[in-house]
Amino acid sequence: MSSPDNSPTNSPPSRSGDENESESETAADERQFAGDTLSDDSTNGNGRSSDTELEELRDDDFPTYFAERDGRLYQADSAASPYPLPVDTPENQRVTFLHKCLLEVVGAHYIGPVHQVLASVEGQQRKVVDLGCGLGEWVTEMARQFPHVSFHGLDIVPIATRYPEVNAQFELHDIGEEWRWPASSIDMVHARSIFMTVRDFSVIINEAARVLKPGGLFLSGEWLYYPSFSSSFPESRTHPSEHVPFLHKLYTTFHTILIQRGIQSPIAPYIADRLQSSGHFHSINPMIFHVPIGTWSSAESAQRIGRGNRAALKRFLDSIKPMLLQDSGMLPEEIEDMYAGCLAEMYNMQGLVSVYYLVSALKV
């Protein structure tokens, strides 16, 4: 990661500092965030896929998949998935920003031998399954990059485009349940930011091992959700609770609530070991990416990403606030004070990063 910018940072509206400067900094974050989430036609395909085994969702069925609570839209209360975050526009905009951010930081929509695994073979239809596809950006862009491959996006709510690429389709399915494909029939399984959709991540690993062909590729990506610092700031890495106590408290509380709800958390640092211990995979390749939070870096591109990432993190705080109000045991005013402290740390603490764990592995 680039060395930090030594110029002073600005404070958020909730903390001391020049109010106009703070508002300007916040507005700049939002402009950068909005600029990176505006649709560029990536979800508008030139045709529609069909599958005779599947039934198309009717318009009047859509409302049954959602529930509104406290002004936010969630998956239906009847859903078996434990996924706790909203599935509405503000949350989808956050996910869209992170999708584009990762493309820039990683340099591609994947790591590992994707081109070899998806190479065209006469008489064979290459197939890829994307778990928790959301709006479907990854499926759409990959379908354009590999037009000879059939892409299938799975999600528990119908929020993906209804007009996918001709070689892509989106299906409603709880990915914690058995997938519809037979054993050894899929070339690649992609799983990004899905750990909160299942209570036991081993379900994902085992099901991926079942459907993947020998030599098939499993690709997992998960955010750490813990305060972390760039390697340029080694003095801050050992004890983040001393440097960003509010963010430390927030994430600790967040993970505690997930565990209380039966969700294994955190999971990101352990997926590579899980794949190894399963005995189903080899050539396991873990990679770690740091995404700046804020404008502390001296690199212009990192400052731009950092502004958007800070705005995205603020939206994440909004998305998890109902969980905290319901299950943290904290009073509303205590949560507000913690949030004000988190914002101050996000604006004033240099070297803060989001950590993304990406792992590729081949099926035995």
Automatic annotation (TrEMBL):
Comp. bias regions, Polar residues: 40-49
Start and end residues of each stretch annotated as Disordered: 1-60
Species of the source: Collybiopsis confluens
Biased composition (Low complexity): 1-15
Protein name per its UniProtKB record: S-adenosyl-L-methionine-dependent methyltransferase
PANTHER family, alphabetized: METHYLTRANSFERASE, RHODANESE DOMAIN-CONTAINING PROTEIN
Pfam families the UniProt entry points to: Methyltransf_23
UniProt cross-references to Gene3D superfamilies, sorted A to Z: Vaccinia Virus protein VP39
CDD domains found in the cross-reference section: AdoMet_MTases (cd02440)
